[in-house]
UniProtKB/TrEMBL annotation, chain B:
Protein family: Belongs to the GPN-loop GTPase family.
GO molecular function terms noted in the UniProt entry: GTP binding; hydrolase activity
Entry-linked PANTHER family: ATP/GTP-BINDING PROTEIN-RELATED, GLIDING MOTILITY PROTEIN MGLA
Name of the protein in its database record: Signal recognition particle receptor subunit beta, a GTPase
Species per Swiss-Prot/TrEMBL record: Actinopolyspora biskrensis
InterPro entries reported for this sequence: Gliding_Motility_GTPase, Gpn, P-loop_NTPase
Key words of the record: GTP-binding, Hydrolase, Nucleotide-binding
Gene3D superfamilies: P-loop containing nucleotide triphosphate hydrolases
Superkingdom assignment: Bacteria
Length: 105, 195
């Protein structure tokens, strides 16, 4: 993929997406109705994932992936969720991860 | 593939930054702790701009492209995913740490005793922003050995900041370092018990 060819020369995504914004395909748009780049992006969103992870798998700059995802959000193929905010990082959340890490030892 | 919006809920996220100088082992650490092969992406980050809302400010905004390595550990029972972000090592990228550090639970500053000065910037950054961090001395082969007290003195670390040794290549060691950070965050952020 050539970064700014797949985005049609666009350099700014239309949706507000951060690296840890979560994305997931809705199942409402079939991959075979999309161009190869959008289809590849959509396939990576089969289960909830992050913009960063999709970008890592596509080996594309995050901004390019944000544009592709914006298109998919626009057509209803993908739904998105904001990253967990600082205020939502509770003691319970930290403890859950802490206990989970301990089981990995 | 059916549409099941509620049965496939988005997970909670926790983010830990792995910081330190160039070549100190950040990517190695992320790779050891992560359940996936570390991924990398380039992000265009905007330098601070005083008036981003006005068109007059547009010319003064500039962006820098930075490569970041990251990994993750999933905890399905609790629907939580821990993300580990290796921060860019070069000094000239400090300015964009604000964006990376937003929403982070804490940071691990990796130190190499042969080049302790390389992590001064990271320590200063987290101290100034009140972000919880600990210092983990990455034990390189043949690295000169210093006692923890010597390292603490050299880094002028506050006595409350944990200092420990780790081997970034070792999954157990990296995991234990993550555990130490979260335990530190929990004990430090907990309300003091009333006597």
């Amino acid at each position: 993929m050539r970064p700014y060819i797949v985005t049609n020369g666009r350099t700014h995504p239309s949706a507000t997406l951060e690296l840890l914004s979560m994305v997931r395909s809705t199942g409402r748009v079939a991959c075979d109705r999309l161009g190869p780049e959008h289809a590849q992006t959509l396939r990576l969103c089969h289960s909830p994932t992050t913009v960063a992870e999709v970008a890592g798998h596509l080996r594309q700059p995050a901004v390019v992936v944000k544009i592709l995802l914006s298109d998919l959000i626009g057509t209803g193929a993908v739904t998105t969720h904001d990253p967990t905010a600082t205020a939502e990082v509770t003691t319970d959340l930290i403890e859950a991860v802490l206990n989970g890490l301990k089981t990995r030892l | 593939m059916g549409s099941r919006p509620d049965s496939d809920a988005f997970p909670w996220q926790l983010k830990i930054l792995i910081a330190g100088g160039f070549g100190v082992g950040k990517t190695t650490f992320v790779g050891s702790a992560s359940e996936i092969e570390p991924l990398s992406t380039e992000e265009h980050l905007t330098t601070a701009s005083l008036d981003t809302d006005s068109l007059a400010g547009v010319e003064r905004k500039s962006t820098t492209t930075v490569a970041m390595d990251f990994g993750r550990i999933t905890f399905p029972e609790d629907n939580v995913v821990l993300y580990l972000f290796g921060t860019p090592g070069q000094d000239r990228f400090w300015f964009m740490w604000d964006e990376l550090s937003r929403g982070t639970v804490g940071a691990i500053v990796l130190a190499d005793t042969r080049r302790l000065q390389d992590c001064f910037g990271a320590i200063e950054f987290f101290e100034q922003r009140g972000i919880y961090f600990l210092v983990a001395v990455n034990e390189f082969d043949n690295a000169m050995y210093y006692t923890p007290d010597e390292v603490r003195n050299a880094l002028a670390l506050h006595e409350s900041v944990p200092l420990l040794l780790c081997d970034a290549r070792d999954t157990q060691s990296a995991t234990r370092t993550l555990i130490s950070l979260l335990e530190y965050v929990l004990t430090t952020s907990a309300p003091q018990p009333t006597p």
